[in-house]
Structure formats: C-alpha cells, structure tokens
Amino acid sequence: MTEPPRAQSLGFFTTPPHDCGYLSDRRAVTLFVDPRIRPDRTTYSLLSQHGFRRSGGHVYRPKCPACEACVPIRIPVEDFKPRRTHRRNLRLNADVSTTSRQAGFDPEHFRLYRRYISARHSGGGMENPDPDTYMDFLTANWATTTFYEFHRGKDLVAVAVVDHLDDALSAVYTFFDPDLPSLGLGRFAILREIEITRAAGLKWLYLGYWIAECRKMAYKTDFVPHQYFVNGTWRDAMP
C-alpha cells in the first residue's frame, strides 16, 4: 500500500510484532508516523484518506504482514439515509441534547469515562486511567478536536471525541453511560456526527477500522452507504 505523496517526507516507524488487541490468535505490526512531527490539518487529512488513524498524539495504521483484517471505513454523509433502527434510535433519544466544547479536561467527562472503561474494558490495558493518560489518549496538541457532550436533562450520558479534517470529521472515540444500554448511545453519537458533518459542508465521517471477525465493530456497517479502504483505494461496500 503506497503512502500519500505529501506524507512520503514525514518518516515512518514500524513496531515489532505484538499481540493483536482485537483478534486473540493474531500477531500485529503497526506503522506510525514519526511522533516528533506535528502534522498540519492538510497532512492529517491526507493520512486519513490513506487509512491512518489518530490515537493520542500518534498517527498510525496496521501493517501486519500476514493479515489485512483491519479495514478503514468511512461514511459519505450526503448519501446516508437512516434505516428503521436508526429512526427508532433517534426517537429513543429525542430528549438528548448535544453541545460542543473545545477539547480539554473536565472532571465530569473523566468520571463518565472511568465508568465506561470499567464496564466495557475491564481487565484490559485501558482500565484505571488517570487524568493524564485519559487526555493523552483522546487529544493531541496539533489536532483540532471537539468534545461533543450529550445530556439527558441535567445528566451527562455520553461524550464523542471528534477531529476536524479538511473535508471530513473523524470519530476518535465515544464513551457513554454503561447503565443505559437500551438507548444505544454509541449509535446515536454516530447519527449526530453524521448530521454535524453534513451541516459543516464536509464529505466524510471516518469511523476508524472495521474488522469482520470482531463483533464489537459490527455496528459500523449498519450505516449505509459506507466505503472501505482496500488495496490503496476507497471502494463502495457492496449491498
């Protein structure tokens, strides 16, 4: 897979093989942009167009020699039409308001994040975060990032962390109240992100990676149409 022209001068590093965080029987290799470099928005946009993703200050892409399970996925927001399940989700969350905030530490966000990680990722490397590791994971001092808050009445029920690109938004991470599973807050956040992307006049919403064998990622293909980045090209998913 070739690198974007502007990115060829950035410098890249690969990790040694390590245990895959998604498929327990696989070994993974990750390609990183030189972490000493602060990409501008256009460079970050080009990297996203070529399958890269941000985690904290690192921009990376899987580069596993014997596996291509991690597939970048994005939604062309102008073409998206909600399905019946999406319309039901919107009705369920009709009383949930959305507000935007500049990225920054907020104790209420952090308490919700800790509850979410404890419920969803118990026993993993993300458990028991402190404020520094929390912010290091969600933000980068070179990225333009917005925290979208979701309130139900006075209660904070979800936070979506979103990066701004030249022609897209990138959904970095979403965490929500684990005691409200019936509301489908993760899907609701994506529906709102689609609306926000469209209202901003942007083309795409990036959803990170999709892995067919990972059940936790199955929800990403519910949003149609969508595209996969395969063999260096974005391709429409077959219905």
- Rg calculated over all Cα atoms: 17 Å
Find the CATH topology of the domain at 81-208: Aminopeptidase
Structural class: alpha+beta
H-E string: EEEEHEEEHEHHEEEHEEE
Q: Tell me, briefly, the overall form.
A: globular
Which whole number gives the mean pLDDT? 93
What's this model, at a glance?
The chain is of the alpha+beta class and 239 residues long.
Topology:
Elements: E1 12-14, E2 18-19, E3 27-28, E4 30-33, H1 41-49, E5 53-55, E6 58-62, E7 71-76, H2 84-92, E8 96-102, H3 107-120, H4 131-138, E9 145-152, E10 155-164, E11 168-176, H5 185-199, E12 204-210, E13 227-230, E14 233-236
Parallel strand pairs: 11-12
Antiparallel strand pairs: 1-4, 2-3, 4-6, 5-6, 7-12, 7-13, 8-9, 9-10, 10-11, 13-14
